[in-house]
Amino acid sequence: MEKVDYKPFENVSFSVTEVLSCIRKHQDEVRDLVRGQYVDFMPSAHDYHLLLDSAKLLEVEIGELRTTMNQLSVDKSSAARNDLCQYQRDLEEGVRGYKIAKKLLSIHDLFEALSRTENSYEKRAHMLAKIKQLLNDIEDPVLPELHCFQNMILRYEIEYSGLINDLNTQFKKLVMLQQRTFHNTKSVTIKICKDEVQLCQVVVALLKTQHNFRSVCRFLLDEVFAPVIVKPVSLICDEKSDDEHVQIQLSYQLKVAEELRPGYKTVLSNMIQIFYNLSNMNAVLSEDECLFKVLARQMKKELCEMLIEQCLERDIPGTIEGMKDSPMVKDVTDFNGILTTFNFVDGENDTRLEEYANSIESIHHKKLCDNVLESALEIMKRESHDMVVIEQHEYQFASSTNTATGQSSSCMVTRTAVEMKKFLDKVLTEVQTQHGEAADQLVKTIATILERYTVDVPMANEKLLFKIPQQSALFRNDCSYLNYWLQKNDDKLKEHCSFACISESLKTCGEEIFQHQLSSQRTQMLQALNGFELTNSLVELGSEHQRAIRQCIRQFELLKNVWQTVLPDSVYKQSISGLVDVFLREVIKRVQSLEDITTAIGNGLVLLIDIMKETLPKLFKEPSEVHQLVKQWTKLMQLRQILCGSLVEITELWAEGKGPLTMCFSAEEVKHLVRALFQNTKQRQACIASIA
């Protein structure tokens, strides 16, 4: 193309026309070229090298013409101004077509250069990146509608896929990932070529194509790191025996007992060895990009979570002594630093392990508290049949009257309660060595243990506690025993939280269980007294009456055997005397309900009272205490006197309302008994008259 010699303004019309003609000619030649190459797939008559040179000259001419037109000054109202604006619009329209032709020619030029690069993966990747940039940079909406442009996109995808396939094939030759499964074992082998130049070229080319290495990451996670973290493995990392490859060999059993899982130190050591040897393939693309960073973006989060959940979490010590001797915090922090040194970073999870290391102390406290609670629950689940004698100073039950009188008393608790108390002492000792949140958590755990005691023990031993009198008595003592432990250690615990509610809950729980047992015993006794039925039609007492009384007495004797040495003395006296009192009140009430008491019935009742008089005082250590403890005892003895006495003796016992009978009987009750015992005579009338 000849260079146009621009003249003043009157020649602008000619210059614009000339340049536009050159642009159209250039467009036609480019169109023929790309149509032949990308539509008709036929060789073109045009030499694209000449077209490139022509495009460069044309671009210069366009630039000079624009400069000349911009330097012209004309009156805005003149016709020349309008002409100049039209020339500029025509030129810009032509330039638009020129740019489309230039882009198509540039893409074709890159495709031609790409075909000459052969095995230079990095250059191919670089050229494909340029082509992709040109294809994506669509300034003119006409471009995507061109058939040749769509075929250029298709060719790019073919070339890109070919490059990726070539690179993957070559990468698999340079980095061999193999795994074999046998009957109960698995073998994993990684071989990394020592030819750093070739390996670097392939990896860098893959990085330039933005390859994500997903299959490599999946292999490393599933076949290498997962078994290393959870199974005992045989790991051999060898850099010397093979001149061409660095080898990582891993073998392990598919099924492994839980107790054989490796400790965290072994896991971290193995992972460091693996990363060290994998670093032989860590090609660097730039200061900000390398293979390990690409891998980290795909797998670091999952790897960290796997390491934490499957290994570190399990190995955090659950005891104070274990944590004092454990270097775990430092080891995990150091390991995180090693990963950073290897450039295994993703920008999001690089502090995950360090943050976890900083939280190990608090996790340890929680784990310690969980272990403490679990140990306590194990103690609660133990059989509670064994009993241990404890002295008064070891329990000091608030309900004990012996404390006030200075008398010594002992009782029994289950061995489980004693073990629980010793365990709580041990935990409380640990509280004294801790500070802040750690101490608070342990104290809260003590509270949880005692709260669970009032729920779990009754639930686990429900049948025993409600059916067996000794067990209910022992549980009452156990609750009081632990409640006393709380009271004794109140000064050590109250600075952390209040145990007042728990103390009351322990006391209430034990009492409710025992009171339920007392209620059950009362019901059983009253059922036995169904055989002691006294009616006005009765002539004499039968064997069933004596059997009912003896059955109740036998019930009391059995309770004595299982309660007297178990319960605190005051609690035993109160409980057994209460039952006896109900028993005597019911017997006396039934006797008093009779309208007619024959001599035979009277003698039979005296005989039964004598049986009670002989046996019931023996329920107490001091038989004489029956007079103070059983309210109905005196009334029973006076009833015997009435049943055996004459009218004169009864009159003397009443003594015009000043005698001993007035302590337990009302005048109407005595009159009723006299009417029932004696026939209507003047003497009976006189006796009744004297009772007022």
Description:
The protein is an alpha+beta fold and about 700 residues long. The protein folds into four domains: about 10-170, no CATH class; about 170-315 and about 335-345, no CATH class; about 380-395 and about 410-515, no CATH class; about 525-690, Up-down Bundle (Methane Monooxygenase Hydroxylase, Chain G, domain 1), CATH 1.20.58. About 65% of the residues lie in helices and about 5% in strands. It contains 28 helices and eight strands. Strands 1-2-4-3 form a four-stranded antiparallel sheet. Helix 11 (about 330-340) packs antiparallel against helix 12 (about 350-380) and helix 12 packs parallel to helix 16 (about 435-460).
What's this entry about, in short?
By secondary structure, the protein is an alpha+beta fold.
Question: Which percent band covers the strand fraction?
Answer: 5-15%
Write down the domain tally: 4
- Name of the CATH first level of the largest domain: Mainly Alpha
> Could you say which overall geometry the principal axes of the C-alpha atoms support?
rod-shaped
Unreliable segments (pLDDT under 50, ≥5 consecutive)? Answer: 1-10, 397-406
Classify the secondary structure makeup into a structural class: alpha+beta
- Can you name the CATH architecture of the largest domain? Up-down Bundle
Q: Which strand order does the major sheet show?
A: 1-2-4-3
> Do you know the CATH topology of the largest domain?
Methane Monooxygenase Hydroxylase, Chain G, domain 1
**Total DSSP E strands:** 8
Describe the sheet with the most strands: 4 strands, antiparallel
The value of Rg in angstroms is 53 Å
Roughly what is the average pLDDT, rounded to an integer? Answer: 82
Helix content: 55-70%
**Quaternary structure annotation:** single chain
Treating each run of at least 4 consecutive H or I residues as one helix, how many helices? Answer: 28
How far is the first residue's CA from the last residue's CA?
155 Å
